[in-house]
Amino acid sequence: MAQHPPQSSRMDLRVPQEVRDIIDYAASMEGRTRTDFIVAAALERAKQVIERRKLICLVMQDQKLLVASLLEERTEEPSQYVKEVAQEYAARVSSVGGD
Q1: Taking a C-beta distance cutoff of 8 angstroms, is the pair 37, 30 a contact?
Q2: pLDDT digit string (tens) for 45-98?
Q3: With 35 labelled, which of 4, 29, 88, 94 sits at a CA distance of 20 to 30 A?
Q4: CA neighbours within 13 Å on the CB side: how many for 12?
Q5: Is the pTM of this model over 0.70?
Q6: What does residue 46 show for φ and ψ, rounded to 5 degrees?
């Protein structure tokens, strides 16, 4: 089956001549066309924004989960391992405090 090239869509934007000159200069330094340079830069920035937003959402979900866990009443007895770790932690904390 023949593959079709990806469809392109047009984006027009107006920028001050100084901005265009700087973009053209940077693009030429990388051996790119203005369009290729702008698309690559915009795509990279867009991905950063999306990833940062996803991270913020995940952090908020984690915070909600933590709060729900802290507010949930636990009636089960901690395991022996948890008890031992807690005792070890308490011993280390009190030894650091100089008691």
Answers
A1: yes
A2: 999 999 988 888 777 888 888 888 878 877 678 889 988 988 998 888 877 655
A3: 4
A4: 0
A5: no
A6: -60, -40
Among 33, 38, 4, smallest CA distance to 19 is for 38
Task: Measure the CA–CA gap between 34 and 24, rounded to whole angstroms.
Answer: 6
Question: What's the CATH fold of domain 17-96?
Answer: 1.20.5
- C-alpha span between 40 and 8 (Å, rounded): 14
Phi first, then psi: what are they for 22, rounded to 5°?
-65, -45
23-47 in b/e form (b: 16+ CB < 10 A) is: eeeebeeeeeeeeebbeeeeeeeee
Rounded CA gap, 39 and 27, in Å?
11
**Closest residue by Cα to residue 90 from 82, 34, 46:** 82
